[in-house]
Every structure is written in structure tokens, then in C-alpha cells.
């Protein structure tokens, strides 16, 4: 965020003679951050409900963040009720696309609806019909599971196992159940800390030769591919935004690190932070303990989302202030709703990618299908396909070998399906009697 703001303020064309200011606070819990949020939407320290939009001039004209669906859903009603643009870089829940509930919510990452459609497309691509869906107990995963159940209707895909896991759950037991059911494709639609526990439990319990479909939140995780024994669990396919670099970002981080608290990265500093009471004082204690390398090596899928969120606000402000290449009209009083109107109309290029939004203020993004290559050192992420909403575009095969993950083997000619068990994709094959035929739209016997 700081990189984007400073880049914009140093630009002579986007907002000439105007500088962006900002205030950052640490979102440390869903319930203890309201003081900062209320401060942002207040005017001179007070909030007047139902004030006319033309008269409403809060402390800020736009907000970005927080990261995560649950955190965002907690505070979004307060921010969006007065049409303050909430340009978010890390909340994927499809609920937030409801403009009646969240009229000024904007996001720079795909919604869960797009991600789930992509996952289903991959499953159908390989003709798998028996899959497991593991998530965490939060808005992100529950929203994903709800959409998955909705969109697999009439696709022939059976959700053979599903579970929302807590951090203290018995991950080993869950994976053993899936293995016993002979399910070879596992969708892990969970936040990173849960996905990490699932993968580590799979390694520890010798779960082998599965296909793991990683949701956007951990598809490009930098630590898990380096876990000892990761190769034996099978193949990991991740879904991420098309990776884009930020020229100059690494140098910016290193320059900011020089002569700052990074130099105090020692055992005493760690001890001092850990000994503090876990209070929510809006100070980022642990920020001073991160090295420049820690920041640069974070998941690359997050960087551009934050970067484009700041540029979205700046481009909207460019329009509202009627800027040209030399100056902006600083005599114009900017209201939050003015920015929102301009955001809907935006269509600009940023580092080789077009940034624009649909009617729900969701971005139009192409996704990358990435294959974890854990047989090389260091592990690599190989882009094996691109998805633009209809099909995967790539001439190469996504997987070196395609495992079987169907409840039953398809019946041969002259045999019809006989339902077996709860799921429609589970059946036995029975020889067809004389004077009968098989309806191939359902593969069941007709007379």
C-alpha cells in the first residue's frame, strides 16, 4: 500500500499537484476494531445518522482492506451505508457482491463465485465425479461450500465428503475417512493456516497420490511446497490470479528497511513483543520483526490486489477532480459517493493488466491454473492453463498423470446403471434384458 501511494504521489500525471494521505491501523479482531472504523467514518469526532450525502464529509473519502471475508463482513455495513468506497483486496465471499446490502463494496480479487466455477470446470475437465471438499469454519469457506453445492447440480459431480474444520480439529481422522472412501480429488477451500494443517497432516499420515485443488488463498503459498515429504501426497493444483510483477517494489522494501527497526531484529525484540499482553492497541508490534525478505517472499498473489486497490481510488479521484496532465481542480470538494460513481466507469491499464469492474464492483480477471513442481529445488509454480470464464486455454496437459476419482466405473455397452447408495454417481452395472434400451442422457434402463 505504501509503495502504491508513494508511486502515485511521485507521479506528475495521475494526480498532479495533489498528494494522497493515508492512515493505517492493525485489524486485530472482528470485535475490537470498531473504534478505528468509527473514527474513519466520523466528521470532527461525531457521526450523524441519515445525514444527506451532499453534506456528508467523513474523515476519509475511501478505505481499503481488511484482509479476509469474516473481518470485512463485520465492518462493511458501517462503511458502505453512506456510500464510502470500500476497495477491498482480500475478501472473496460472494455475499459481498450483494449491492443492496453492501452498496459501495468494491474488490480487486475474484469472488468465490468465480473461483468455484473455475474449480468445477477443472473437475469436469478431467471427468472426475467423486470429490471431497474441506474448508474452515469461517465466512470464506462456508460461502465457498454453499456455492459448490449449488453449482454442481446437474453436472454429474458428487460431493462424497465435506467438512468445515477448526484449528483444533482432528485432521488425521478426516483424511483417513477420505482415503477409506477412495476419494482421490480433494478441494481445500480454506484459509492458509487451515490448509497448512491439512497438508502437513496428509504428509504425517502417509496419504498418497491424491489431487489437491488449492483455493486462491493458499494457491501460491511459499512455505508448504518446501515441506519434507510433500511430493508423496500427490499433485497440487492451485488457482490464482495471473501473476504480475511490481517493478521497483523489491528496491522500495529494501530502502525502507535500511536504518529502521528492521535492524533490531534480535531475540530481545522477539521476547519483548511476546511478553506483552495480547491487547488490541492498533500498533503492529510484529511489523518491526519482519525482514525485507519476509515481506518480498509473501504470496505474490496478494501484492497486485493491494496495488490495484490504491490505484483504483487514485484514478477515481483523478476523474472527480477533473485532472489533466498538468493539474487537478483542488477547489472541488470530494465526497465519497462521487468516487463510487467514477469507480464503476473505470477502465485503465496497470502493469499490463486492464482494471475494470462489473455492475457488482467485482473485477474482470483471468485466472491462472498453477501446478506445484515440488520435485525441483527450490519448488516452483508452473502456469499450466489460463481460465477466462468459459474454458481452460492451454495446449499442454494439466497433469502428467490423471488419477481415477469416480465412485463407480462406467458401464460397458449392453449394461445399465443400477443406483447404489446415496449419491447418483454411485451405481452397479446390470446386463440389459431383451427389448430394452439405455437412455444415455441418464445412463439408466428404459423399456
TrEMBL record:
It is a multi-pass membrane protein. This is Taste receptor type 1 member 1-like. GO terms for cellular component: plasma membrane. Residues 1-370 form the Receptor ligand binding region domain. One of its GO terms (molecular function) is G protein-coupled receptor activity. It holds the Pfam family ANF_receptor. PANTHER family: CALCIUM-SENSING RECEPTOR-RELATED, TASTE RECEPTOR TYPE 1 MEMBER 2B-RELATED. InterPro entries: ANF_lig-bd_rcpt (IPR001828), GPCR_3 (IPR000337), GPCR_3_9-Cys_sf (IPR038550), GPCR_3_Ca_sens_rcpt-rel (IPR000068), Peripla_BP_I (IPR028082). Coiled coil: none annotated. The keyword Signal applies. Gene3D superfamilies: 3.40.50.2300, GPCR, family 3, nine cysteines domain. Keywords: Cell membrane, G-protein coupled receptor, Glycoprotein, Membrane, Receptor, Signal, Transducer, Transmembrane, Transmembrane helix. The keyword Protein biosynthesis does not apply. It is found in: Cell membrane.
Amino acid at each position: 500500500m505504501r509503495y502504491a501511494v508513494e508511486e502515485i504521489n511521485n507521479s506528475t500525471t495521475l494526480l498532479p499537484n495533489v498528494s494522497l494521505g493515508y492512515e493505517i491501523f492493525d485489524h486485530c479482531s472482528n470485535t475490537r476494531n470498531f473504534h478505528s472504523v468509527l473514527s474513519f467514518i466520523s466528521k470532527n469526532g461525531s457521526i450523524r445518522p441519515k445525514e444527506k450525502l451532499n453534506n456528508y464529509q467523513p474523515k476519509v473519502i475511501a478505505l481499503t482492506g481488511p484482509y479476509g471475508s469474516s473481518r470485512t463482513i463485520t465492518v462493511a455495513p458501517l462503511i458502505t451505508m453512506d456510500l464510502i468506497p470500500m476497495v477491498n483486496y482480500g475478501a472473496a465471499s460472494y455475499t459481498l457482491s450483494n449491492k443492496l446490502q453492501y452498496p459501495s463494496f468494491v474488490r480487486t480479487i475474484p469472488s468465490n463465485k468465480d473461483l468455484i466455477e473455475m474449480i468445477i470446470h477443472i473437475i469436469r475437465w478431467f471427468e472426475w465425479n467423486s470429490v471431497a471438499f474441506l474448508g474452515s469454519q469461517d465466512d470464506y469457506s462456508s460461502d465457498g461450500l454453499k456455492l459448490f453445492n449449488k453449482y454442481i447440480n446437474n453436472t454429474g459431480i458428487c460431493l462424497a465428503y465435506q467438512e468445515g474444520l477448526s484449528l483444533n480439529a482432528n485432521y488425521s481422522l478426516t483424511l483417513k475417512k477420505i482415503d477409506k472412501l477412495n476419494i482421490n480429488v480433494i478441494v481445500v477451500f480454506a484459509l492458509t493456516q487451515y490448509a497448512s494443517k491439512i497438508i502437513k497432516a496428509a504428509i504425517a499420515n502417509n496419504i498418497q497420490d491424491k489431487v489437491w485443488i488449492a483455493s486462491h488463498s493458499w494457491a501460491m503459498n511459499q512455505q508448504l511446497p518446501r515441506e519434507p515429504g510433500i511430493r508423496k501426497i500427490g499433485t497440487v493444483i492451485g488457482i490464482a490470479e495471473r501473476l504480475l510483477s511490481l517493478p521497483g517494489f523489491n528496491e522500495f522494501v529494501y530502502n525502507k528497511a535500511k536504518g529502521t527497526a528492521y535492524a533490531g531484529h534480535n531475540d530481545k525484540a522477539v521476547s519483548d513483543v511476546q511478553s506483552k499482553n495480547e491487547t488490541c492497541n492498533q500498533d503492529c508490534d510484529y511489523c518491526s520483526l519482519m525482514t525485507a525478505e519476509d515481506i518480498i517472499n509473501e504470496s505474490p498473489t496478494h501484492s497486485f490486489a493491494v496495488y490495484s486497490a490504491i490505484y483504483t481510488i487514485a484514478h477515481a479521484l483523478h476523474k472527480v477532480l477533473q485532472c489533466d496532465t498538468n493539474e487537478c481542480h483542488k477547489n472541488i470538494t470530494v465526497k465519497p459517493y462521487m468516487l463510487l460513481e467514477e469507480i464503476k466507469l473505470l477502465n485503465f491499464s496497470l502493469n499490463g493488466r486492464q482494471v475494470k469492474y462489473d455492475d457488482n464492483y467485482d473485477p474482470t480477471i483471468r485466472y491462472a491454473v498453477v501446478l506445484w513442481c515440488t520435485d525441483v529445488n527450490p519448488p516452483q509454480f508452473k502456469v499450466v492453463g489460463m481460465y477466462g470464464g468459459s474454458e481452460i486455454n492451454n495446449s499442454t496437459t494439466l497433469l502428467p498423470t490423471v488419477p481415477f476419482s469416480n465412485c463407480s466405473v462406467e458401464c460397458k455397452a449392453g449394461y445399465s446403471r443400477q443406483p447404489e447408495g446415496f449419491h447418483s454417481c454411485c451405481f452397479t452395472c446390470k446386463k440389459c434384458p431383451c427389448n430394452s434400451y439405455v437412455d444415455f442422457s441418464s445412463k439408466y434402463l428404459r423399456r
